[in-house]
Amino acid sequence: MNQVEAADVLIVGAGPVGLVLANLLGLHGVRTLVVERNLGLEGEPRAVTLDDESLRTLQGAGLVDEVLKDVVPGYGVQYFGWNGRPLASVLPTRQEYGYPKRNALRQPLLVRTLFEGLERFAHVRVLFGHALEAIEQDAHGVRCTLRHGDTQLGAQARWVVGCDGGRSKVRELLGFVLDGDTFPERWLIVDLAQRTVPLRHTRTYCDPRRPAIRLPGPHGTLRYEFMLRAGDRDEEVLDEATFRRWIRERMPEDAALPLVRKAIYGFHARVATRWKEGRVLLAGDAAHLTPPFAGQGLNSGIRDAANLGWKLAAVLRWGAAPALVDSYERERRPHAAALIRMALRIGAFMQPKTIPGAMLAQAALRIACLLPACRDYILQLRFKPKPRFQEGAFTPSARCPHAELLVQPQVELPDGRGVLLDTVLGEGFAVLGWDSPAFRAAAPQLLPPGVPGRIVALLRAEDDFLGAQPEAPVLRVRDASGELGRALEACGAVAMVLRPDRYWARLIDAAALAQQQSRPSAPDDGMSLGQVLPV
Ligand SMILES: Cc1cc2nc3c(=O)[nH]c(=O)nc-3n(C[C@H](O)[C@H](O)[C@H](O)COP(=O)(O)OP(=O)(O)OC[C@H]3O[C@@H](n4cnc5c(N)ncnc54)[C@H](O)[C@@H]3O)c2cc1C
């Protein structure tokens, strides 16, 4: 069998999740090979929503400015009741992770940008027209069999990640199955172009006669989604006369727009029984399928890539134990499952079965919205599960037994400019804490030797930049919004060690900082990676 070159990580599938992972690995200098069975990039316009956490990951991958060119940032959802009247609006205004919570995109544009992002890395290659057929692994690596036309090829990798979608071949080869449900309801998706009505927000019609969604997108695109009923025949609902009539009933101006594509989808709420076997892992739709009602399937997959990318780099390049990769599933599975449950709840609300059922559920929502706390919970999307985990690669503290994604406010640079926090934290690890002689002395020892990392000393919002900048590698910035101070105080910490995915790995209180400072500071006396990330 002919061999293609070996790689440290072989990614199966050049869908959005595989390409985000390839960009993150490329950034960390990991030799990566992406194999894609199609001859080119996937053009199916599936996902239409990107959330704030995904945009932050793309910021970390150095691609957010390019991605934002094809995104309408910050849109909300307006719900209409069974009688066609406005019912409630979800219009989140907070940007705790640096970006609006809901952003409209078209998946093929994102995929194109992600693919072009790989041009930055000579050590990342994509092979189109190569389908994975078999894998064989031992303690040191994985041998893959690929099919390219009539030819079989071998490829050797130290790790393999199956980002090969809902019908994952990698999952099948590992013998894992998808647990969960497939919905009886099917939806018709209609993509249109040259939208004229400037309404920005999604409209969701919770009408038991025909639940429907109108989703405006970038560059004048527009999507309609209609729930199909048990008796609907495919050829009838795919007939333009039928769906253009349904569109006209919702917004007459949209009814004659040029058609880009129509398709019928069924939806699943499923999670793979396991996500890892030895050196082979699953990510994205291969690991979990989320009903689209919350717009979270792709976003969950991007979270997988953000979690896995730096861990593989840490094992392959920075001397971490392979056991670090085991924490991937422990950290990601509960959150992915929680988002599936959220999508199911939203789906049940959007797809009322009867008019009395719809009236009851919608009246309950109206009453709940009379209470300011409830209204805020709904309007600000606070029902979305927080990006945090209870177990994994971090050191819990008594006050904070979980690890959580750190907020990303703007911080003020010494020259007065405001920038998003991650701009100063860099791409690797970071130690962030209140500026003090003790912090500046102890912080270098909190960064494990051999890992890329930065030290950022915070001044309080009310402080000025007094005195000269501290000596490198410490950078001093101002917590202008006070949000970082609140995050530290919530955990009783004066400093924290952050992982490259911006979850905290270790919280340091004043006593621990003093103890660390009093230790002799021989160059190899700092914390090891294993101490910072116990697994
Ligand atoms: C109608 C619809 C609307 C959606 N809306 C949203 C939304 O608004 N927001 C959101 O977050 N998500 C949404 N989703 C979900 C989102 O589209 C998926 O979660 C996302 O595409 C998953 O990306 P992926 O990279 O994991 O898999 P995929 O996009 O399926 O990519 C897998 C890739 O692997 C390749 N491949 C498969 N087998 C092999 C093999 N053996 N060898 C080599 N290559 C292989 C495939 O060709 C493909 O390119 C929606 C989905 C649908 C259907």
In brief:
The chain is α/β, with parallel strands linked by helices and 535 residues long. Helices cover 30% and strands 28% of the residues.
**What overall geometry do the principal axes of the alpha carbons give?**
globular
What's the overall average pLDDT, rounded? 92
How many extended strands? 29
Q: How far from one another are the termini?
A: 39 Å
Radius of gyration: 24 Å
Summed up, the helix count is 16
Largest sheet: 9 strands, mixed
How much helical structure, as a percent, in the residues?
25-40%
Ligands: flavin-adenine dinucleotide
Flag low-confidence runs.
none
Observed structural traits:
535 residues, alpha/beta, eight-stranded mixed β-sheet, 30% helix, binds flavin-adenine dinucleotide
Structure description:
The protein is of the alpha/beta class. 30% of the residues lie in helices and 28% in strands. Strands 1, 2, 3, 9, 10, 11, 12, 18 and 19 form a nine-stranded mixed β-sheet that branches. The longest helix has 24 residues, at 327-350. The structure holds flavin-adenine dinucleotide.
SSE layout and pairing:
Elements: E1 2-3, E2 7-12, H1 16-27, E3 32-36, E4 49-51, H2 52-60, H3 64-68, E5 72-73, E6 77-80, E7 86-90, E8 102-104, H4 107-117, E9 124-128, E10 131-137, E11 142-148, E12 151-162, H5 169-174, E13 178-192, E14 202-205, E15 212-216, E16 222-227, H6 234-237, H7 240-250, E17 259-272, E18 276-277, E19 280-282, E20 288-289, H8 297-317, H9 327-350, H10 355-368, H11 372-379, E21 388-389, E22 403-404, E23 410-412, E24 418-420, H12 421-425, E25 429-434, H13 437-446, E26 453-459, E27 474-478, H14 483-490, E28 495-498, E29 504-508, H15 510-518, H16 529-532
Parallel strand pairs: 1-12, 2-3, 2-12, 3-9, 6-14, 12-19, 25-26, 26-27
Antiparallel strand pairs: 4-8, 5-8, 6-7, 10-11, 11-12, 13-16, 13-17, 14-15, 15-16, 17-20, 18-19, 21-22, 23-24, 25-28, 28-29
The structure holds flavin-adenine dinucleotide.
Residues 12-18, 35-38, 42, 46-49, 107, 131-132, 163-165, 169, 189, 265, 284-285, 292, 295-299, 301 line the site of flavin-adenine dinucleotide.
